[in-house]
């Protein structure tokens, strides 16, 4: 056993824990009624709670739903079954995970229609944070998946499971997608489903790596499982890389917008430096700069601001000013 494997496994891989890990992750189903009913009930209730939390714009309620949701278990179980060479169980785990995801979308759609005020999609922070995934979301999902694999693979890291449930967003974006589809907002639903897909592939990627490094591949049932394992690893890598491309583009847009807003704010401060006015707010979105200032006396020339914005390389088509007069 290599040094790396001993570090990840915390010593020698304990083969006696494999049945326990398989039950936790639904790889081994000894009592189908008990295990699947618990999974389904918790999944449905977490979807209802998360949808209500999104409608109420309450992060606390959404976090509570994330702690209840069991959807990450079959995701991790799929990777674990692949690592230990159990292809049929891996396929079943993948089916359970995808079926569970579809169930969450359906439950969220029905719940959103049952809520009297519905789920507001515009101006809702719980929605907007889950429809525009960025590269940072991919990084968080990879790290969370790695911790999740460590938590089920080692008996001394299990306490990290609640933190993993909170850090990686699995059920909430599915609930946003369900609510959006119920309202016919396909663009919002697509963004939320993209975030879920990113999280799914990232979790598979990191769980595959961690279980391999922990040495569980050495407990594979037969040699033919190595080919299936490599195929699944390649699928996870390719899927993650392909998803990283649009996320990188989205992240670049965010960085550019931040640069524009910072340049606009600096230009406004320079523009007002010799006047008795102070900046209240600067909005550089939508191709226009909207400046709100407060003070008294002679207004500074707006053309001077346009020159400063051009010098700061802020792409702007129009400049608007709102003034709040303050009299001493």
From TrEMBL:
InterPro entries: DUF389
Source taxon at top rank: Bacteria
Name recorded for this polypeptide: DUF389 domain-containing protein
Organism of derivation: Paraeggerthella hongkongensis
